[in-house]
Amino acid sequence: MELLSPAGNLTALRAAVDNGADTVYIGFRDATNARHFPGLNFTPQQAAKGVEYAHARGARVAVAINSYVQAGGWAQWREAVDGAARIGADAVILADLGLLDYAAQHHPELARHLSVQASATTPEALNFYQRRYGVTRAVLPRVLSIQQVAALAEETDVELEVFGFGSLCVMAEGRCLLSSYATGESPNTVGACSPAWAVQWQETERGREVHLGGILIDRFAPEEPAGYPTICKGRYEVEGRIEHAFESPTSLETAELLPQLQRAGVQAIKIEGRQRSPAYVGTVTRIWRQLLDDLTAAGDEAGAHRPDPARIAELREFCEGSTTTLGPYERKWQ
User: Fold this and answer.
1) DSSP H/E element including 233
2) Domain coordinates in residue numbering, the chain
3) pLDDT tens digits along 159-185
4) Inter-helix orientation angle 10-18/278-298, to 10°
């Protein structure tokens, strides 16, 4: 299976390539991608250098242009597709139908991958994207069980890519409404969940409070670690209890499921985290490269292969909230 690693800057891209990523996915420094945060992403010049670095070492680069075109913004989103072609990227990751059509018409040589933001989970949907826009791969939303992934693989020729490690999202990708409710903006519209301008920290007698769009979404004790706030991972009062009502801070970690994912027909494993540091990207990529190489060396048709516990332990040190989950993959009944 192919290994895809994230990169939020040129240093992270080099770390991913040097540690064994088959493909690195990046975004331009504007609202055309769903990780549009200050100081993150690539200028066209940096992206060109990244492609050159990756290609010289046998790796590929995919450009995520996975937010949806907003009114009056067609020129900007179109230029992102043109820019990806201009720098020699190997693929674009798209969700917007207009952009898919534009890329197919004007850059047919540029592989088109369907973003998780399109939230396509049926063979009818995937086959439509393939037939109409020449999509060769789809990133599946993190809501499907392994059984559902396997059933999907049997009914489509579109390559299937799944997330194997990193943060989870409580929403079906492409359908986020919580951030829009609090701030009027979302990953689909401006590329950012919890846009920085809407985040406010405040020290109070009851603890360190964080607001999003004026809404209190969490309160932390003095020594309690506090990550970047998102509304879905906040704590709220529900029937007299304060708890993570939508989603607890945890990481998807599927190393133990690699044989099953391979047998299900998955062609690519994706690591989440373009907002993460180069050190994180390099270490996590290295561990996953070893895990996938071990699986290949085992020639495991029967599914008896188990990953090295030492590598799993090292990997889990990088998990959000220091906890892990198999997410919907553990739904054996589905």
Assistant:
1) none
2) 2-168+250-330, 178-243
3) 999 999 988 776 566 667 788 888 988
4) 20
Query: Which pTM does this prediction carry?
Result: 0.89
Angle at 43 between CA 37 and CA 44, to 5 degrees: 140
Please enumerate, as own/partner, the contacts of 150-158 that have beta carbons within 8 Å and a separation of 24 or more.
150/263, 150/264, 150/265, 152/121, 152/122, 152/123, 152/126, 152/265, 153/264, 153/265, 153/266, 154/265, 155/123, 155/127, 156/123, 156/126, 156/127, 156/130, 157/130, 158/114, 158/126, 158/127, 158/129, 158/130
Residue 188 tokens, joined? 């689909």
- Tokens 């020699």 belong to 88
| CB half-sphere exposure, 13, CA atoms < 13 A | 28
Question: Rounded distance, CA 251 to CA 268, Å?
Answer: 19
CA atoms within 13 A on the CB side of 263: 13
- Residue 173 sits at φ, ψ, to 5 deg, of -55, 140
Place of tokens 């004007």: 106
Q: How far apart are CA 1 and CA 267, in angstroms?
A: 5
- Please give the CATH topology (third level) of the domain spanning 2-168+250-330: TIM Barrel (3.20.20)
